[in-house]
Design brief:
The chain is mainly beta. The protein is built from 2 helices and 18 strands. The radius of gyration is 27 Å and the shape is globular.
């Protein structure tokens, strides 16, 4: 048998080389270790922010991110500026109100406003004290988060404000009460006013265009939390310091802490009528001992920053989410200054409470506090 010539062998190998090379390439890639990249904070300040504002939080410097729950494209804000300092016997918070975490898209279908920089300057007692009586939250923000975004739980929407088919005006049914309605929310609400609960998920609720942080934007461009600030909190069960109330007491979050509010039973006696279902603030009542917290959603206990114990508020998953009253005296720096209400109506178009004021709001590391070291 005659052996093939070298020329014949080379011609045969010419057709085999491409498949062999391809197989070798595939084998080489499959054998390489997979390289991953987790973006780290780009500056020392950003790194400090991640470490100081809650274990388990992550900071993504990308210009956009996808919300894991619904796949919605989120805007990533990197222009956050906040400074919290002790000056004498005061704690002074200055901020531009731009959040340091991903937000929903604004404007959106139910919120036509765009997030813009603010000029906040808040001042609270560094050593807060109880007032003689509880102060309902009227015409002011409840407090401010460590990232400089305000807690402002009250909705600017009321039954009978012209957007309800069942009424052309304010519901009838009572004068301004001299105190907090018995069995009602701790906000001194006018018994004739039915304020929509901002976080309600009921058939009759108003959609306020809130994002995954239970926040949205006022007509003046101020981004604010109506409920639990999801982007601000981290993991773990220990109480996490997330901000300060207008009276100076700290605000915490702990997943196991339960508020002491419940839905009322029966039907509404006036106004919108129907069964109490959580659409309105007045659908809830305080029941002492039902949960872990008092009517202002707070308690006195030790915390990581105050091992000797201190009165502090909680942001909670369930109503009221953000507290609606103060155990101390709220500072005037938290009062609203001629801002628009709701989704764009000026304050002058809101119903009042019979006193000429805006109606009360409703709805739903150890050692030295880290934010006092933070300068952004």
């Amino acid at each position: 048998m005659q052996r093939p010539s070298h020329r014949t062998l080379l011609r045969s190998l010419r057709w085999l080389l491409p498949p062999v090379a391809l197989l070798m390439l595939i084998w080489g890639l499959g054998d390489r270790p997979v390289l991953t990249h987790s973006p780290e904070p780009r500056t020392k300040t950003e790194q400090q922010l991640v470490q100081n504002q809650g274990a388990g939080r992550t900071h993504h410097p990308e210009t956009a991110a996808m919300h894991p729950l619904n796949g919605t494209l989120l805007a990533q804000n990197t222009r956050n500026r906040v400074a919290i300092k002790i000056e004498g016997n005061r704690r002074v918070i200055t901020a531009n109100g731009i959040p340091d975490h991903a937000t929903g898209t604004f404007p959106n279908r139910n919120n036509p406003n765009t997030i813009t920089s603010q000029s906040y300057s808040f001042s609270v007692p560094a050593n807060p004290q109880f007032a003689r009586q509880i102060t309902p939250m009227r015409g002011q923000r409840f407090g401010v988060a460590l990232n400089g975004v305000p807690f402002d739980p009250g909705a600017g929407e009321f039954w009978g404000d012209g957007r309800d088919r069942s009424s052309g005006g304010r519901p009838q049914g009572g004068q301004q009460s001299g105190g907090r309605p018995q069995g009602g929310p701790p906000n001194g609400a006018d018994s004739s006013v039915w304020q929509y609960e901002a976080l309600a998920q009921t058939p009759g609720a108003r959609n306020l265009g809130l994002d995954q942080n239970h926040a949205h934007v006022q007509p003046d461009g101020s981004y604010h939390y109506h409920g639990l600030p999801t982007g601000l909190i981290g993991g773990g069960s220990a109480p996490q310091l997330i901000g300060y109330a207008a009276d100076g007491f700290p605000i915490y979050y702990a997943p196991e802490v339960r508020p002491s509010y419940r839905l009322k039973s029966g039907t509404r006696p006036d106004g919108p009528g129907g069964t109490y279902d959580g659409t309105f603030v007045r659908d809830y009542e305080y029941a002492a001992g039902l949960g872990d917290l008092d009517e202002c959603n707070g308690r006195t206990a030790a915390t990581p920053e105050h091992p000797q114990g201190i009165y502090h508020y909680y942001a909670t998953q369930a109503f009221p989410s953000i507290p609606r009253c103060f155990r101390g005296t709220p500072d005037d720096s938290f009062r609203h200054q001629q801002r628009g209400g709701g989704q764009g109506r000026p304050d002058g178009n809101r119903p009042n409470n019979g006193t000429g004021n805006r109606p009360p709001h409703g709805r739903p590391p150890h050692g030295r506090p880290p934010h006092e070291r933070l300068q952004r």
